Amino acid sequence: MQRNVKNIAIILAGGVGARAELGSPKQFAILDGRPILQHNIINFTAHPYIDHIILVCADINDEKLEQIIGGHKIDDIVQGGETRRKSAFEGLKAAKKLSEDIGFNIGHIFIHDAARPHIPAKVIDNLVAALKNHVAAIPILPVADTILQTHDDVYDKIIDRNALRIVQTPQAFDFDIIYNAHENWDQDFEPSDDAQMVHKLGLNVAIVDGDIRLKKYTYKDDFMMDGALKMPNIRIGGGYDVHRLISGDGVYLCGVKIDCDKALLGHSDADVALHAATDAILGAIAAGDIGDHFPPSDAKWAGASSDQFLAHAVKLCEEKGYYLSNMDITIICEYPKIGPYKLKMRQRIAEICKVEPEQISVKATTTEKLGFTGRGEGIAAMANVIMMKKEMAI
Ligand SMILES: Nc1ccn([C@@H]2O[C@H](COP(=O)(O)OP(=O)(O)OP(=O)(O)O)[C@@H](O)[C@H]2O)c(=O)n1
Ligand SMILES: C[C@](O)(CO)[C@H](O)COP(=O)(O)O
């Protein structure tokens, strides 16, 4: 009985991205909110012609790789080789093994640079159509610019661009043909793509329309232009809290004790401003609210200093890769007067959050004797924060 036929995409992510100078392989950098490599996986997964995906990957620890793949399905992951050609062959060997393990025949293989994150479905359609009559097909684009040949960086001559084409990936092949080309490669030059290996065997390579969106991210400027390195991931959080004022010997606000004949009533030290700040930070990373982390029902937090609540929220953010960009607190009360303490408050919050006082704003306002704050029955506080994630590269 004829075994069923499956088509496989091999994503080449085994390079170091030296020309991109990002400090780590460019395929792990974030573009449009997700790692470049993950875009590839999503695009191939979405195309009905692709049955399996094999990832050929650069050295990276399992935890980071898992994060980069983001829960998407990959059928096998293998280590890249020293060159693109060697990485491609590793992918082909993994494809062969997968077909033997599961029990299917490989129809077509699509070998793709991970450094080309956007793969329009139309290009895959074009390749599939060409493979009906060819053993290999590649996407190409016309050359738009004047092409100059130089010698030792000196102007030499213009090349006729009409005969030239830009070669892209994915490049598509009959499995047996490309496997054979790789297995028997004995030339003394390193091919920059797979199609030229097939062509070297004297076989015809079909050319189909490529797409500008298939652009390869190669140099740092490619990333800069597309905003990959410019736009950090930003999260905004807001917090609001109220505590009742009673007779006492001082109120805690922003981690600073203001000696007076009042106190704020609460399970902890009732620092209403730090509670609002904590909620703002938790809100920015969608990590619930202060009550979820420090339940008033838990005796452990009775009389607790609210500093630790804020420090905990900051730590949670750090664990997710976010840092505090700025915080703006507004304290709403008639009494006590906040003005003389503002600087100290900013310094204390900065200390807890491990940032500079310039990043912290503390403001105060009254409600013109209106409402519960106006009548001196309680103090309200609002906080807004911006948390940022540096997402150049994972
Ligand atoms: N040993 C290698 C070299 C390259 N590639 C992959 O082949 C694609 C195209 O290569 P290129 O743009 O040259 O990437 P790098 O080799 O990473 O870049 P550079 O030459 O700047 O180091 C990339 O997706 C890259 O990860 C690979 O899988 N294994
Ligand atoms: C395969 C390729 O993407 C075709 O344009 C390209 O040759 C690979 O990149 P490299 O810079 O040549 O390694």
Automatic annotation (TrEMBL):
**NCBIfam families for the chain:** ispD (TIGR00453), ispF (TIGR00151), PRK09382.1 (NF006899)
Where are the stretches annotated 2-C-methyl-D-erythritol 4-phosphate cytidylyltransferase? 1-234
Which Enzyme Commission number(s) are listed?
Answer: 2.7.7.60, 4.6.1.12
Instruction: Show the segment(s) annotated as 2-C-methyl-D-erythritol 2,4-cyclodiphosphate synthase.
Output: 235-394
The family annotation for this protein states: Belongs to the IspF family. In the C-terminal section; belongs to the IspF family.
Q: Spell out the residues of the site Positions MEP for the nucleophilic attack.
A: 161, 216
Residues that hold 4-CDP-2-C-methyl-D-erythritol 2-phosphate according to the record: 241-243, 267-268, 289-291, 365-368, 372, 375
Which segments constitute the 2-C-methyl-D-erythritol 2,4-cyclodiphosphate synthase domain?
A: 234-387
- What are its cofactors? a divalent metal cation
For the site labelled Transition state stabilizer, the residues are: 19, 26, 267, 366
Tell me one GO biological process term. terpenoid biosynthetic process
Give the domain of life.
Bacteria
Task: Write out the function statement from the record.
Answer: Bifunctional enzyme that catalyzes the formation of 4-diphosphocytidyl-2-C-methyl-D-erythritol from CTP and 2-C-methyl-D-erythritol 4-phosphate (MEP) (IspD), and catalyzes the conversion of 4-diphosphocytidyl-2-C-methyl-D-erythritol 2-phosphate (CDP-ME2P) to 2-C-methyl-D-erythritol 2,4-cyclodiphosphate (ME-CPP) with a corresponding release of cytidine 5-monophosphate (CMP) (IspF).
Q: Where does a divalent metal cation bind?
A: 241, 243, 275
> What is the protein name stated in its UniProt record?
Bifunctional enzyme IspD/IspF
User: What pathway is it annotated to?
Assistant: Isoprenoid biosynthesis; isopentenyl diphosphate biosynthesis via DXP pathway; isopentenyl diphosphate from 1-deoxy-D-xylulose 5-phosphate: step 4/6; Isoprenoid biosynthesis; isopentenyl diphosphate biosynthesis via DXP pathway; isopentenyl diphosphate from 1-deoxy-D-xylulose 5-phosphate: step 2/6
The gene from which this protein is expressed is ispDF
Instruction: Please provide the record's keywords in A-Z order.
Output: Isoprene biosynthesis, Lyase, Metal-binding, Multifunctional enzyme, Nucleotidyltransferase, Transferase
